[in-house]
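Below is our example:

___
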Amino acid sequence: MNTDRSLTQLVSYPRTGSHWLRVILEQYLSRPCSPESFFGNDLNNPWAYHLHDRVVGEGDEGFTDNFDKVIYLYRNPVDTIYSQVRFEKTQDWQSIAIEYHNHLTRWLYNHDDCKRLISIKYEDIKTNYQETFKQIFDLLDVEYNEELLKTCYEETTHQKVKSLTPHNEQVVNNDIFNGKYLTDKSQFKEHFGQTIDDMFEGIYK
């Protein structure tokens, strides 16, 4: 339960890359992101709390506002919605899209209640990880070690993250989208991508 507003918050909607980021940072810092550790580190000394806040402000995880420091991790809406649809094995992508729209609106634009907030894109971790992690380390007041970060980043493969987070599996029936067999991202984008892009115009940046 999130009970300490002074503790740095890692806020992310599901399927936006939080496991990847947390595994890298736990190796670099030798400290976990509460409420769980991937490497058996002391949960009494976390570097942050991971808050989904999936339904904005609902509070089922504890505090959701007035934090000292926040790292907001977010991802392209089409990719996020597609991944969550697969994970939940649902046809109702519209409800997920509405949730994520509300999430981006809250944490990208309506966060004046928080003292410091940085926004990190999943895509930037892939394409420009050194500058992205420099922002995180600056917020955390942690020394930047280029070689250590390089090692942690390169060793944190998709397979490694998957092995550490077994609940992260994605098993989908081919019939999931009303018999249209939209079981790959390209088909999902073809059918729904433009609608989602239009919905998030001016919100996702």
